[in-house]
Amino acid sequence: MNISNRKDALRDQRAKMLAAAPDWRASDARVNPRVAIGSIIAMWAIYFLITSVLAMLTGVPEQWPSAGRRAIVVVAGILCTFVLYQLLQRAQPQSFGARLAAAFGAAVPLVIIYATVNLLVFYYWFPVSDSAKIVEEMQSKYSVAWETMLILDSSIRWYFFFAVWAALYVAFGYANEMRALERRANHFRMEAQTAQLRALHYQVNPHFLFNTLNSLSTLVLKGSKSEAETMIMNLSSFLRSSLAVDPEQLVSLDEEIALQRLYLDIEQTRFPDRLQVEVEMPEELEHACVPVLILQPIIENAIKYGVAPSKGKIAVRLTASAEYGLLVLRIENDIDPKAPAPASGTGLGLGNVRERLLTRYGPTAGCEWGPSDSGGFVVSLWLPLAREAC
Length: 390
Fold this sequence. Notes:
Elements: H1 3-19, H2 21-29, H3 33-58, H4 63-90, H5 96-125, H6 131-141, H7 146-222, H8 225-243, E1 250-252, H9 253-270, E2 275-280, E3 289-291, H10 296-307, E4 314-323, E5 326-333, H11 348-361, E6 366-371, E7 377-384
Parallel strand pairs: 2-4
Antiparallel strand pairs: 1-3, 4-5, 5-7, 6-7
Helix pairs in contact: 2-7, 3-4, 4-5, 4-7, 5-7, 7-8, 7-11, 8-9, 10-11
């Protein structure tokens, strides 16, 4: 697939994702139907129990007939709230404000229906013994149709009941949506982190390969056939070992140092009389986990700026220690004061190391570099000490 076709495919994929966004939102905001229906039944059951207990405590006459009428009204309330639930499901692809407005608006006609059923049950279908007295009082109190005024009065009181349930439903749906968005954001963040780790890792090999091939070319031009053959074999071993590992992989510290030994064998061919390597690693840190090839740019930097321009022997020292729950690695190289100062680099290698550590571990890891107390150059890096993840 060429670049143009790849861009078109990505554009089509993005358009499909945007078109499907409302469906994602509706799915994310959907409250479990069992929870929604259960909350409706529980709300009205609690209402029935509370009103029945209050009727008993206040000595309302005809307890059982009133309980029956109340049960019919409760069933009507459950049905009206269920209709409200169905309407709110249709508004789920909208924004939170639109859903809340839909909840409050849809509650108005349903609460009027509920108040009407309440009126019919208690005053027309199953009238109580003193219904005539209540009707007479209502007619004397209101100059218009008393049924309308009673429905409006009941609707105002019951609207809060319906609106509270609707607002809670919308809030639960919004909470579900936010949790889904957070999960999706974490997934995308991990994907981006993985891509960044791979990109940073793949910056290492081209950088190293360029310098090695340059050195190999120099050996060929000098006619150093045996040294060139040795470097080619060492380069083959290093590339086979380094490219076989996953850039996100963690390896033990002794495995990482073994990889660097392969690289140092290549450089030893270039500088047989100048390069001296010293490794100080406590036995208990041999299995400490580190990102694969994290040391390679640092050691390469020590060779390039310490060993290459010098005339005498230069030591490259690697020290590992455990401090306050962190694995601390120091790579120090001598500098020949008589050697000409090499041209300053781009900072790609050491910057790469810092970025890889920050990307994987965050602020608990880091990398610093600068002149050492002995007059050389030192790079220090630290990361959480772990022995199980690799």
